Every structure is written in structure tokens, then in C-alpha cells.
Amino acid sequence: MSWRNLKRSRIYGLVAVVLVLVCSLFIWWSVDEGEWSFVSLTVNQSAVSSSPTIELRASTKKPLVLIFGGDVMLSRTVNAKMSTYQDYAWPFREIASTTSVADVTIFNLESPFLKEADYRVPTGSFSFKANPQAIDGLLLAGTDIVSLANNHMLNMGRQGLGDTISLLSDHGIATVGAGRDEETARQGYLIERDGWKIAFLAYAYPNDNSVATDQRPGIATMDTDKLVADIIRWRQQADLVIILMHAGTEYVAQPGVEQKAFARAAITAGADVVVGHHPHWPQSWEIYQGKPIFYSLGNLVFDQMWSGATSQGLLARLVFQSDLSGQAELIPVVIKDYGQAQLWPDDEPVATFWDTYQLEQPGVLNWPAPDNN
Description:
By secondary structure, this protein is of the alpha/beta class. It has nine helices and 20 strands. The strands form four sheets. Strands 4, 5, 6, 7, 16, 17, 18, 19 and 20 form a nine-stranded mixed beta sheet that branches. The chain has a six-stranded mixed beta sheet with strand order 9-10-12-13-15-14, covered by helices on one side.
């Protein structure tokens, strides 16, 4: 072999060794909407004299579990019970093991907190105020986000709304649907879990002085044009956009025209889920354009023990796969002793729950991955 050929052979050999070492240690980074994620490399080293074969396997998100509950009211008789038992986590003690294990847990908070007050509210009053100690129950339940867009959030005026947002924020619970003005009420919130980005927006039906304006604190109202603009604003940033809707006729099991129109407009505009509350009864559900809508989950923590229908409610457990396909399970809940939510008892036929509302007992609800995913 000539000196030149020997030198060329040594160079080739050295290059091959370097390639093997580099490929075996190299971590390939890819950027996905501003976040870094790993992509594994497999190197075929069957012949060091040839170029290595690299196979890229894109990382996938683990399934995302969301749990939604309906109306949570921590005032009136619920407060009286917590005070009597000296246990401000009492309303959630029997369901916390179910709600706290979700990746994200979401409720509608139906009563404002007030930091300094007499928290006694007589039976029959609809002006709610909650003791800040009741935050214990929300924390026990693993609450991540609450909707403040409802008809009771301004019961204690500007002070109650400010105290509520401040207290929840201090304890790591995000709020949506209300704020110091319309912009903040409609801002929404983006939460991140294990590579998922989930945006939440919330709206309620009132058209009165509880609605936020440019100059006045309050809640986000159900304006379809603004809903669409808000969804478009979040759509490019989030994997999922979820709408919380406080609307409908109380004490009926079927949604009204306004509920359906608003929820379906949200899906058409790009939302992935709509979850409703306010009627104090569970209502029907549907898969619309391949996306789930739950028109009302009913009560979760409330003191409306005057009927079987108002002393029951639902948890909705949604699981999303990385391709955005998913499934939902509706979990019946019964309210005991004027304010403690409990899972439906094993010795009671679950059909009894659904017969109360003349609703069909659901199985597992599924929806496909979107076509443009």
C-alpha cells in the first residue's frame, strides 16, 4: 500500500470513529412552540466505514387527565356546617382522592371570599360570602383553576371580587372569567402540564352591573363575537382551548337555545371542550363537530337539600391523548348534610341518578383526533 493510500485509510478510519462517538453521545433537540423536547437517536454501527443510519422517533405527550366539577358554594349553610365541625375542608373530604389526582382540576366557584366579615348568611339569602378558611377544601381537592364568571361573583361587590382573586392567587389557584376590567375578565389563563399547554376561558349570562367594562370590575359575559376573538387569540398558543360556560334555565335537564348556540359557536371557532354549569341540575351532553360539550354538571358543593335533583351532581373526567383524541367519564356525586360532596354509593343503582333527570345513562364518551392535527 502506498503512503498516500495508507494516509487516506487512516483518515477514513478516524472520521468513522469520530462519527460513532459523536452519534452515540449526541442529544438531538427540537423546538416545539417555544419549548425544548428530546428526540431519541438510534445509530446503526454495522460498519464503521459507512455513514451511520439515524432514525428519529418524535416524542409524544403522556395522556392528559382533566377533572371538572360544577357549582361550588361555600357560604350560607355550607359555611355553618364547616364552622360547626371546625373543618373547612369538610365539603371535599369524600371526593378529594378522586379530584386531586388529575393533572388539572377545575370548578365553578359560586361564592366570593371576603377577608373580614361576619360569614353568617341566613337560609333563603342569595347574597353569598365565604370565609377565607374555606380555601382549605379547594386545596384538599387539588383545585388548579376556578371560574369566577357567574351570577354570584359580585355579591360582595368590588371588595369581594378583589379578595377572592387575591386569596386564590396567594394559594396557587388560577382564576378565569372575572377581573378588574373587561380585558382582564376575558384574558383567560394558560396552564402547562407535562408538555401540554391548556388555555381556559370563562363566561356567564348576566347582562347587568356585574359585567366588567373598560372602567368597571366584573365578569366576562356571553358575547359570541368576543368569545370567537378570545379563542382565536389562544388557539395558536395552546394545545387545547377549554371554555367554561355559566348559563341556562335553572332546574331543567335540557339546555336552552342560548346555551347551545354559545357552546357550538365556541367549538366552531376552535375550542376543544365546553363545560357548563348554573342550572343546579346536570344536563345533557353531545359530541359536536368531533368535540365534547357538557351543558351542565349541576351542583358539587351546595346546600340545596330541598330536592333530590339539586342534591346531586357530576364530575367529568376527560382524558386527552397526544393526538387530541379523547374520552370522558361522567361520575355521579351525591351531596350529604347540606354541603359535603360524596361519590355515588356502590350499593345504590347508578341508574337511579340518571332517572332523576330522565337522562340516558352514558357509557364512555369518545371523540376522534382532529383532521388537521
